[in-house]
Design a protein that fits this description.
Layout (H helix, E strand, L loop, with lengths): L4 E13 L4 E3 L4 E2 L3 E18 L6 E4 L2 E2 L2 H18 L4 E8 L9 H16 L6 H11 L11 E5 L8 E6 L6 E7 L9 H8 L5 H6 L1 H13 L3 H20 L10 H15 L4 E5 L5 E6 L3 H8 L7 E6 L5 E3 L8
Parallel strand pairs: 5-7
Antiparallel strand pairs: 1-4, 1-14, 2-3, 4-7, 4-8, 5-6, 8-9, 10-12, 10-13, 11-12
Helix pairs in contact: 2-3, 6-7
The chain binds ligand DP6.
Amino acid sequence: MSNYTATAVACANIAFIKYWGDRDSSLRLPANGSISMNLEGLTARTRVMFNELYTQDTLKLNGELARGPALSRVIQFLDLVRALAGKNLHAAVESQNNFPTQAGIASSAAAFAALSLAASHAIGLNLSEQELSRLARRGSGSACRSIPTGFVEWQPGSSDQDSFAQSIAPADYWDLVDCIAITQTSPKKTGSSEGHSLAASSPLQSARLIDASHRLDICRKAILERDFEALGSICELDSNLMHAVMMTSSPALFYLEPTSLEIMKAVPTWRQSGLPVFYTVDAGPNVHLLTQEDAASQVIEKLNQFPSITSVFRAKTGGAARLTANQLNDEH
Ligand code: DP6
């Protein structure tokens, strides 16, 4: 039985060009392509044990047995893995994040990337990176981007076969740092999956989509040329476009909080005074400030001056999802 167990670690990622809205929500085919950077040290570690004696799937999240929607989502995902392997085995899944879940750092991305690798390996499948990325996508769209290393692009594709992510550049290509200002650690009210389903109700979504491939080209080029200024301006535009769609969908979604806006307004003034920094915000209130290694401590110092910021995480560019020893502990 021992070879039915595997453990994997995967990083969260921050989207530079955002995925918002699906063209097929059951297959999680996105309305547009997206680009992200893996976040080193912000990881999910997931162990999967398949056993002939188990009569149902179980899920432990950060040490606590999960039920309800979180468990159903994992069961649905394991059904895909079982179908791929042609084996009808149940599993015990244990997953630990080392950052707050559902607070605007893509916890589902890290979790489903790690689950894809651990579950497929445990059940005896030997999937290629592309196949793993496609599988992870079915659990959570952005999870497909946490499979390859470094800077990653998700090709939207038009079917299950051709919608997957690939690395644009390795983790050590550019010394970018993400300084994440945590303003709230409680779970958000509207999860991304529900948010995606509302995107099409915004009259602005079609305008956002029409120009997406142009923004992807600019972003990809900026990464390849290590052009910080170009990357910053396209990322801020793309983040603002997504939040404009969110705020104009019905019902309207407001993920930004007053502190998020305060930071977003301060960033251009910091830039004017010579600090290389730009912002981007996912589906939560926490603001991600991207900077270069040698300016990171200055950015963090500035963030620490906001009384409503409870902590600041600092992450360099992270690597690919990987298999690891079968132990769960707090050291990721
Ligand atoms: C705003 O991948 O979390 O972070 O597929 O429903 O799990 P599900 O959605 P998810 O959506 C991510 C939305 C985003 C932008 C991004 O990461 O591209």
